[in-house]
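Note on ligand handling. Small-molecule inputs were canonicalized before submission; formal charges were left as drawn, and no protonation-state enumeration was performed. Where a ligand contained multiple stereocentres, the stereochemistry in the source SMILES was retained. For magnesium ion, this procedure yielded the string shown in the input block below.
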Amino acid sequence: MTALLNVSGLSKRFGAVVVADQVDIAVYVGECLGVIGPNGAGKSSVFNLIAGTLSPDAGTVRFDGVDVTNVPAYKRARAGIVRAFQIPQPFPKLTVYENLLVAAQYGAGLTGGAAEDWVVGVLREFGLAAKAELFGGSLTLLDRKRLELAKAVASKAKLLLLDEVAGGLTEREVEELAALIVTLKRDHAIIWVEHIAHALRAAADRILLLHFGKKLLDGPPVEVLGSPVVKQIYMGLAADEAA
Ligand SMILES: Nc1ncnc2c1ncn2[C@@H]1O[C@H](COP(=O)(O)OP(=O)(O)OP(=O)(O)O)[C@@H](O)[C@H]1O
Ligand SMILES: [Mg+2]
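Structure output:
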């Protein structure tokens, strides 16, 4: 089986700031790759490079068997690379159902009854059926985050790029969101950038550590989160003290 996303030798700098330094990433449908790294490590920039809102200085991005390195962002989105952000932005004056219908129509290209049936399925999958008639702007933060993920699925995303989506939630809500993300692995490849380690521990199959744009570690969550390198970077301890 080939990876849905295959990033190779990806490099990008802004003047002296290196945000991607020869980064290789492979992600398969069925898995969630967690990404950690200190503020400014280049995590969101790597997402921009994958989504196509930023062009690399070097390297390639292959998605679904196609080299998309020079393909514009809107075409990558249509092909199934979809992002979700920390602050969800549903259309506040549209209902949950209507928000998803927009994603089904403009993201997935569905029309008429096919779009409506698809949205009903997504509502059910996300436990939002009872809230279908509520306005997007009236939802709790957790439900807005659920809707943000549901919109990505409604637009027929194949690769979900989640950028700190657990931010602002209580610990219990983080657990609920992580459990939902686990269910999305069934049909999607997921990359989840998150500062909240226990959320990644619950959902990620592997964790990648980015530092100054360089991939320092990529391995099982327990190994990476327990690594002296991580402790050193986050706590400023010497590796031998942290071990
Ligand atoms: N368009 C840009 N022009 C110049 N510098 C940029 C640009 N985008 C990002 N940077 C810089 O690149 C570095 C990496 O930023 P990035 O947003 O990718 O980090 P991050 O790992 O997502 O950080 P955080 O954890 O704070 O979200 C930062 O120093 C940032 O200021
Ligand atoms: Mg960021």
